[in-house]
Specification:
Strand order of the largest sheet: 3-2-1-6-5-4
CATH topology of the largest domain: Beta-Lactamase
Number of helices: 17
CATH architecture of the largest domain: 2-Layer Sandwich
Oligomer: single chain
CATH superfamily of the largest domain: GAF domain
Structural class: alpha/beta
Number of domains: 3
CATH class of the largest domain: Alpha Beta
Shape: elongated
Length: about 525
Amino acid sequence: MKTTYDIDQKSQLGALYSVADIIGRCGGQKQMLQDVLDLLEAELAMHRGTIMLLSLNGEELMVEATKTICDLSSQDLRYQRGEGITGRVLATGKAVVVPSISREPQFRDRIHRRKEVASETLSFICVPISVESEVVGTLAVDLYSHSEEVLLEAKRVLSIVAAMIANNVKSRRDNQRQQLVWEDENLRLRAALGEQLRPENIIGNSHAMRVVYEEIHKVAATDTTVLIRGESGTGKELVASAIHFTSARADKPFVKVNCAALSETLLESELFGHEKGAFTGALQTRIGRLEQAQGGTLFLDEIGDFSPSIQIKLLRVLQEKEFERVGSNETHEADIRILTATNRNLEVAVESNAFRQDLYYRVNVFPIFLPPLRERKGDILMLADFFAEKYGKKMDKPAKRISTSAINMMLAYHWPGNVRELENCIERAVLVTDSGVIHGHHLPPTLQIPQGQGTKAGCSLKACVNVLERDMIIDALKRCHGNISAASRELGITSRMTRYKIKKLGIEFKHMCV
């Protein structure tokens, strides 16, 4: 390894060729810059090389690659604009040559700690790394030479290296910006697609619900049997309705049957119809729901409650597309699409012989799982606003907004009754409020947080901070009608930070815009 800079042009050209080769390779930026510094030291005797790049705020330089072996604090690895020789290069965009660092009062010697080196023999060169007249970093080295000719020649070579680095940095930054643009566009298109696929009768834009919308979109155009699964109150009937009204059978009947609400005898008659005199009380012939749904869709809610005998008859409908009325031997064709729903675990029911295995396979052709409300908390505020507006109009008591305390309580609650329970809570709140603002004390006692219990047991500090940040941002966005810039000024943070928090905390704010 050379110790004194060699101004031989052949050596310079060979070194520059090698630098270009390093920069042209694929790989990480840090490793590429480190390889460049290694080569400058090995081939041109440029010691203690340091490459610093501009921070995101544009006010300070941060070490990206260096030959130092010292233990440094984070502050040692930074230079403010105008601070020391390196900061001056950032501020002016002009290279600086220091013939003797021991005689330069502005030389900070912060990164390499040259006290153990004979600093009186060292010179220092720092050149800017510029992209389209904008300084984005600096390249600095030590030389064991005081010759003006040597230093000027070394500065020229370093400027060429800095220009090559600058082009690489620019290319990488352009790629990063393009990647961010593509990611933003992808998110926008996915959100737009999700909004486009979202049925008009369903509220929610969480990831779990967007999956449901995509499944509805896929299966609606077919006659495939669908099994809609989920806890009670999650909106299974709304999904069935959305499938029917976006299908080719939309202009045909949509008939719903709650199987759990009827006894076995009544359910059989309700589904298949009966002939006059088929049983006590059958005073006249009556068509069943299967015939009512001819050409359209039959929705069987709580199919897990079917008795074994009705399961057999339903299996025939699914397999043969035909049925008979109670008390009749005449066979009727069933030109219908069947949608089913249950909140039961059918797999367990099959294992215990409470539900026929062959029927299970017939109805479970295309399952759609509806998430419970506790797993889609990002939709709670949107649903609450929808119900508040709905019942405000119905009761002629417009609900202006939902307070932070009420939002906290709704987000902390586990919602065993899911969306149906949330709707009932908001209906009650709209009924009891007089100011048009729904506060925490307007919500049912089941949602009330005990005095002095501000957070859940075991809740982490980070989770509590997230809840507080979410509440403050939502309140600010509401007051500013969804204007992010205005809300940011009110919160005392930048618009960029607000957008980051909105994305991180899953805040839906478009419905707040006027």
